[in-house]
Amino acid sequence: MDDQDHGRGGPALSVHGLSKRFGNRVAFEDVSFEVGRGEVFGFLGPNGAGKTTTVRTLGTLITPTSGSAEIAGIPLVPQNAERIRRRISIMPESPGLYLRLSVAENLECFADLYRTPDPRERIARALRTVDLADRADDVCASLSKGLRQRVALARALLSDPQILFLDEPTAGLDPVATRAVHELIDRLRRRGVTIFLTTHRLEEAERLCDRVAILNTTLRTIGRPGELRDQLFAKSLTVTTLAPLPDPDHIFADLPAVDGWHPDGSCGYILAVSDPAVAAPAATRALVGAGADVLSISSLHHSLQDVYLELVGTDTPADEQAGRR
Ligand SMILES: Nc1ncnc2c1ncn2[C@@H]1O[C@H](COP(=O)(O)OP(=O)(O)OP(=O)(O)O)[C@@H](O)[C@H]1O
Ligand SMILES: [Mg+2]
């Protein structure tokens, strides 16, 4: 098989029972998952959960303690590190630029280090992609945090990676700079780049990621954000009326797709439902038929943040757990 085509068609990342320990500290343990080609995959978890260590391990910077993985179809073993690195790129938590050099000089250094073919063209293209073409001659020390982050992204793009690991790419960025990074991720997705994104911004994961995994030393869950919501939370409707209903049980008890109800304040009612699209119109008709003044009927929307808090909100902090082992 041609080296460039190795494993094409299979998953971008395939991870089986992977663990990493530092002495007796467990960074992550028995982690298994797959990421499809061209997928944007979110990797969430509290501080010390093992996200960066996972990125460093999959990126061939450190070796796992046990388990196995394939990166772009190539087995993750030390003798394959160089072949794997030709297909991936990592944008680390801190940009790590030479502050006394200009933006272009930084990229030239790294292009040289990576032995990037056609470096001038690649650098120009990477700078255009992150919208920094006009800052090429600025010294990195004079750039704001957000701009340095974008230089680091340009550096990660120099090698034209199939798989891009982004470790908290929007940490500390303002909303406009954050949106610029999100748009860039969308553009890379359209180009078919697989993106492995660690983040603490749950709304970012919900908006950008096809699937997310939640890690807290071990993998807690994995799936599409909507699926995780449905797995964890029962569907419900909230009904608010102008005045308390005299006999709510009479109205709600026999409605189709309504499994039960409980009061929420004096004029609010929460209905457990199997299908909101059936239950909401039926509840509306029943309420109007009973002469109630309805202020609102809405489905209760659980966010990815609710899922996250449900799964890790009551856990012992990962740092303490790891330290105790
Ligand atoms: N080189 C190292 N030597 C010893 N322990 C390490 C090393 N690197 C990471 N660890 C430990 O492994 C655990 C996981 O750390 P990691 O940096 O992967 O977490 P993280 O999920 O990226 O956290 P954060 O959200 O704070 O970035 C922590 O307990 C950390 O202290
Ligand atoms: Mg980290």
Automatic annotation (TrEMBL):
Chief subcellular site?
membrane
Q: Name one GO molecular function term.
A: ATP hydrolysis activity
Q: Which InterPro entries match?
A: AAA+_ATPase, ABC_transporter-like_ATP-bd, ABC_transporter_ATP-binding, P-loop_NTPase
Sorted alphabetically, the keyword list is: Antibiotic resistance, ATP-binding, Nucleotide-binding, Transport
Where is this protein found? Cell membrane
Q: How does this protein lie in the membrane?
A: Peripheral membrane protein
Cellular component per GO, a single term? plasma membrane
Ranges annotated as spanning the membrane: none
GO BP annotations, alphabetical order: response to antibiotic
Which residues are in the ABC transporter domain?
Answer: 13-241
For this entry, the protein name equals: Multidrug ABC transporter ATP-binding protein
